[in-house]
Amino acid sequence: MNSIKNILRNSSLRPTKQRIMIGKLLFNDTNKHVTAESLYRELKASEQKISLATVYNTLHDFCEKKLLKKVNVDAEKVYFDTNTNPHHHFYSDSEKLLIDISKDKIKIHGLPKAPKGKKIKDVELIAHLSDS
Amino acid sequence: MNSIKNILRNSSLRPTKQRIMIGKLLFNDTNKHVTAESLYRELKASEQKISLATVYNTLHDFCEKKLLKKVNVDAEKVYFDTNTNPHHHFYSDSEKLLIDISKDKIKIHGLPKAPKGKKIKDVELIAHLSDS
DNA sequence: CAACAGATTAGAATTATTCTAAACTGAGAT
DNA sequence: ATCTCAGTTTAGAATAATTCTAATCTGTTG
Ligand SMILES: [Mn+2]
Ligand SMILES: [Mn+2]
Ligand SMILES: [Zn+2]
Ligand SMILES: [Zn+2]
Known about the structure:
binds zinc ion; globular; 33% helix; homodimer
């Protein structure tokens, strides 16, 4: 109920009406992959008064505070992932649908070391799905 | 010299001036990762007369004919990869730079089977780089 | 409550990309 | 070589996701 407020406070984000609305949709549910538009539609469907710009602002704020992770899998739009632990994805290009793959299911061997002056920040694996 | 023409003919693409210009830039060189804009700039830098729409058209045509592969790694823009063999990438988000990782360097174990009705078309791994 | 930094907002702007519809051109047929 | 036409190119308009602007509002702190 007010755990959302705590999440926000712990991240030095003011618990405003809009951030709480979004927080409820994102963090009460199990893991979700949303886009700015899908979240905006979900908010409007529940009679919430919010602007699209705020949805974008909030998603970006949440990302900066590591409450969300950006997923770039499709050029059309950016996905935001409530699962911030390292993990991988199936992606259905036709349905535009992301499905988590638990990190510890998968073992990756032989990754070369990063070019000098660089380090590997994150390894993401995307298994693209097609019908049949 | 006319191997580009052959590549185009073999793909049932008319060897027009514009496609040959682009083919030379893409297929004579070693593996390249370009965006529509970067390729357009490269063409204009060499005094070539071509429109941006044609660059987009040609990149898409080349993709359909499997002469190029699309890489979605950054929400900003789409990359086109002259390396059409399955392989993986380093990506430097700060420099917007893709680096190939040979497929056979890397072994991936434990990939779950695709959801029913779906199959895995392609597995791509992206190792995001940061400074230091 | 007063004050103000931080947040929200509508709408304009930006950017990559796609679309449109008219002009052009490569290649096969005559 | 010329004719013909489907395929291609093109400029510019349109689209769509996202960002920006600058005015208004609100949560928090004193
Ligand atoms: Mn886009
Ligand atoms: Mn975009
Ligand atoms: Zn996920
Ligand atoms: Zn590559």
